[in-house]
Amino acid sequence: MSNSCQNRTVIITGAGGGLGRSYALALAAEGANVVVNDINGEAANAVVSEISAAGGKAITDTNDITNYEEAGQIVKSAIDSFGELHAVINNAGICRDRMFISLSESDWDAVMNVHLKGHFCIASHAGQYWRNQAKAGNPINARIINTSSGAGLQGSVGQSNYAAAKGGIASLTLVQAAELARYGVTSNALAPAARTGMTEDVFADMMAAQEGKFDYYNPDNLGPFLAYLVSEHSNDVTGQIFEVEGGKIAIGDGWKTGATKNKGERWTVEELINEVPALIESAIPAQKVYGT
User: Fold this and answer.
1) Fewer CB within 10 Å, N side or C side of the chain?
2) In this structure, are residues 209 and 12 in contact, taking their beta carbons and an 8 Å threshold?
3) CA-to-CA distance for 73 and 96, rounded, in angstroms?
């Protein structure tokens, strides 16, 4: 290990299992102080014990990221325990997958609450802390690392609530990067693919390890990339959406103004009947929605 994150204090949400656990173990091995946040206290304690047994530093936190006041307690716990906060990794998530017409209001609200509101609550408290420190003249070199998804970047059949939340997180990341740079804070998002509890029901066969081959979907593959983003080596990396899986790193190309035709005056409906299909035909096509 390179100790790339030596004495960097990191909060990881949903760190009791899956990718969050892999992130926690990797960052602790790189010298970070890790706040293992998970509403499942038993799972969080197990990760903390694993880190401690390996000589790392970690504490358990079971506060609810969807409750604004409790999210503030997570930030306070990190600072009280380790004296500083350097990074928030928003990883916690749930799925309530159904076709759009079959979604209930509770399906929608639950996914928005954990993913989108959860990303807001803890980053809001961390951002305010870093802003106050910066205004007091203290040097800040901090990170927000969000979790989007391929579903959020291009849509996914049967996951309209999840895709909408993850797309919102991608946009939130861009705004955070633009607004918080003045305080010494970067914001990036990952769209990861790995074998976790959220993927085992749908992608179990595709993501299964194959004997004698590189375990492409092992969640531990993503740990080094997280350590890089948390470290001071990534100071100039912000406002990026990274698709990360196995040994692959790709940069999300993002929304941009594409094929354009400007008449210079108001269009008529009759003109648009021909012009809109022609404009679409001239544009670079988007990637297909997952499941189509």
Assistant:
1) C
2) no
3) 28
Q: How many domains does the chain have?
A: 1
Beta bridge partners of 146: 189
The catalytic position among 4, 22, 148, 149 is: 149
Could you tell me the residue range of the domain that residue 134 belongs to?
9-251
Residue 292 lies in a domain: no
Please say if 256 is a catalytic residue.
no
Please give the chain's pLDDT, 292 residues, in tens.
679 999 999 999 999 999 999 999 999 999 999 999 999 999 999 999 999 999 999 999 999 999 999 999 999 999 999 999 999 999 999 999 999 999 999 999 999 999 999 999 999 999 999 999 999 999 999 999 999 998 989 889 999 999 999 999 999 999 999 999 999 999 999 999 988 655 555 555 656 666 777 788 899 999 999 999 999 999 999 999 999 999 999 999 888 899 999 999 999 999 999 999 999 999 998 889 989 9
Whether 35 maps to a domain, the answer reads: yes
pTM, two decimal places = 0.91
- Write the burial class of residue 135 (CB in 10 Å: 0-12 exposed, 13-18 middle, 19+ buried): exposed
What's the Cα-to-Cα distance from 10 to each of 48, 53, 161, 212, rounded to whole Å? 13, 19, 29, 35
Residue 126 sits in a domain of what CATH number?
Answer: 3.40.50.720
CA 147 to chain centre: 1
Instruction: Tell me if residue 166 is catalytic.
Output: yes
Three-class secondary structure of residue 250 per DSSP? strand
- Separation of CA 23 from chain center: 12
Phi, psi of 122 (to 5 degrees): -70, -35
Assigned domain for 284 exists? no
In angstroms, rounded to a whole number, what is the distance separating the alpha carbons of residues 280 and 258?
A: 10
Is 14 a domain residue?
yes
Annotated catalytic residue within 156, 160, 166, 231: 166
23, 129, 162, 217: the active-site residue: 162
